[in-house]
Specification:
The chain is an alpha/beta fold and 231 residues long. The protein is 30% helix and 27% strand. The strands form 2 sheets. Strands 6-7-8-3-9-10 form a 6-stranded mixed sheet, sandwiched between helices. Strand 1 and strand 2 form a beta hairpin. Helix 2 crosses helix 3 and helix 2 packs parallel to helix 4. It is globular. The site of one adenosine-5'-diphosphate has 11 residues, from helix 4 and helix 5.
Length: 231
């Protein structure tokens, strides 16, 4: 059984008289164990599709199934890592991670404990009490990843996670994300990564889904047959 099925999904934005079709008739399947990259020009609806798959947007038409069940509302097993990190600047690294846990009903003490473990997992031990502004771009994105992992996701969605980083930091972090994915330390069953970098997609993913715009739709899918770091 696939993890995610997107069935004839259309998303329109705007009111009655000014409607805009962001994506139209999109079908997509993500298998259990798969790393899928979503590639396409700016504005083709990649983020929209991510929001629909995680249940943050309700599609205008069509259906998303998760493990065979129609998705209603936010998918508690899915999480998104954002391009611009979206950290709270007034909170420390540890607090930024812990709030994600507390928001899900975990007690304060348990959240602090788990946050420290996750910060260690992404290689930021020693920076628990630092503020985001004191960290490099790469380190900030690691905090973003630790916070996303706090919910113990099965489906990890990454929305251009390396685009805001310089070339070297992006390179390092790509390797570290692949290592997390292959380590088996987490319960992640699939990764969906939005990218506009074809080399990055080929390097990281098992399959590339290519979208085009006006309206946003899937135009082709490319399996990657390279020997993978995971094999
Ligand atoms: P991508 O991630 O591929 O750049 P998006 O999903 O962000 O594409 O956007 C697809 C299209 O939908 C764009 O034209 C964008 O301007 C529009 N759009 C995205 N979100 C909204 C919204 N909340 N309201 C109206 N239009 C939106
Ligand atoms: P940037 O986006 O600024 O290039 P990087 O994460 O690639 O950020 O690293 C920038 C600097 O921060 C480097 O000098 C690196 O050694 C240091 N750094 C990154 N992660 C850690 C860490 N976990 N512990 C100590 N130093 C780190």
């Amino acid at each position: 059984q696939p993890l995610v099925e997107v069935l004839r999904v259309t998303q329109r934005y705007g009111g009655k008289d000014r409607q805009f079709t962001a994506i139209q008739d999109v079908n997509l399947t993500i298998g259990d164990g798969e790393f899928v990259a979503l590639l396409g020009p700016s504005g083709c609806g990649k983020s929209t599709l991510l929001r629909i798959i995680t249940g943050l947007n309700r599609p205008s038409e069509g259906l998303v199934r998760y493990r065979g069940q129609a998705l209603h509302g936010v998918n508690p097993h899915a999480t998104i890592v954002f391009q611009t990190f979206a950290l709270f600047p007034w909170l420390t690294v540890q607090e930024n991670v812990a709030v994600a846990l507390q928001a899900r009903g975990v007690t304060y003490d348990e959240a602090q404990k788990r946050a420290i473990e996750l910060i260690d997992l992404v290689g930021l031990d020693g920076f628990e009490q630092a503020y985001p502004r004191e960290l490099s771009g790469g380190m900030r994105q690691k905090v973003g990843i630790a916070r996303a992992l706090a919910v113990d996701p099965e489906l990890l969605c990454l929305d251009e996670p390396f685009s805001a980083l310089d070339v070297l930091s992006a390179e390092t972090l790509r390797g570290e994300v692949l290592e997390l994915w292959t380590s088996g330390k987490l319960h992640i069953r699939a990764v969906l990564m939005v990218s506009h970098n074809i080399e990055e997609a080929v390097f990281m993913a098992d399959r590339i889904v290519v979208m085009d715009k006006n309206p946003g739709r899937v135009i082709t899918e490319i399996p990657i047959n390279l020997p993978h770091p995971r094999d």
